[in-house]
Amino acid sequence: MPHVxxxxxxxxxIRRKAPKIHCLTNPVTMQDVANLLLAAxxxxxxxxxxxxxxxxxxxxxxxxxxxxxxxxxxxxxCILAGKKxxxxxxxxxLDPVGVGAxxxxxxxxxxxxxxxxxxxxxxxxxxxxxxxxxxxxxTSPRSHGGVESALRLTESDVCSTAKQTANLFRTTVLIxxxxxxxxxxxxxxxxxxGDSRICRITGGGCMLSALCxxxxxxxxxxxxxxxxxxxxWREVACCAGRRTDATHGGIGTFHTQLFDVLEEKIFNxxxxx
Length: 273
Ligand SMILES: Nc1ncnc2c1ncn2[C@@H]1O[C@H](COP(=O)(O)OP(=O)(O)OP(=O)(O)O)[C@@H](O)[C@H]1O
Ligand SMILES: Cc1ncsc1CCO
What we know:
Bound molecules: adenosine-5'-triphosphate, 2-(4-methyl-thiazol-5-yl)-ethanol
GO molecular function, one term: magnesium ion binding
CATH class: Alpha Beta
Protein name: Hydroxyethylthiazole kinase
InterPro entries: Hyethyz_kinase, Ribokinase-like
Binding site for substrate: 46, 203
GO biological process, one term: thiamine biosynthetic process
Distance between the termini: 20 Å
Helix content: 40-55%
CATH architecture: 3-Layer(aba) Sandwich
Mean pLDDT: 95
Strand content: 5-15%
């Protein structure tokens, strides 16, 4: 896990650079993703028409390929944006939402991964297992949870899956769930804490993927960025939960508090949360 001062340096870089992220995302969580990036000190440009995707990538600093609610044109736009970002050496984050949910998703995301190199894959346990099965002889999970994970891996299995995914795609991976694991194939880091109420709002993972894209624009390596973003998002959920309890709030309060706490952590590090 990055040292506190390393996280502070990432925060300073974000505040100074205000990175703009080209987000190819999904209509379910699009507004949360845009607001999260603004709360965290960056900004979003949503553009997923094939005719403009690469052009928009060119003036942004990072690229988020969230394949939720896919169609052919959207995946083609992801490929165009991803290739352009690779050519410019801009960081690319892939969030392969529900990749196991249909043959169409498996085929199109496999095609995307054959043409675009993500610097970070942020996914849940089931999505990681399905990705591995696409490019190895690992068997695909037999039942799937749609966009949620039907898998509940042990700590040692999730660590070995993270390492396998990182090695297979020569990248860094952040697998989320009851515990998170970051691996670049050599280093593996477990992240714990948080608040399980995050599973009762949609987009907890989509927002984290956007935060990772922002942190990749401000950290020394994808591994440091993923550890810092994953750790921060769990701390944010924990503080949001405490504040929700203190005001006897429900899941709507928790959702709103995620944005308030994130903004305070990045812009007012002196605040006692
Ligand atoms: N049981 C849990 N307890 C605490 N935090 C959790 C738990 N499960 C997931 N999280 C956290 O929720 C966030 C989202 O992870 P999750 O695995 O739910 O992503 P996802 O399935 O891609 O989400 P979505 O599809 O809703 O965007 C991560 O920060 C993760 O650490
Ligand atoms: C529910 C849902 N379906 C596609 S994307 C999404 C948001 C959480 O990933």
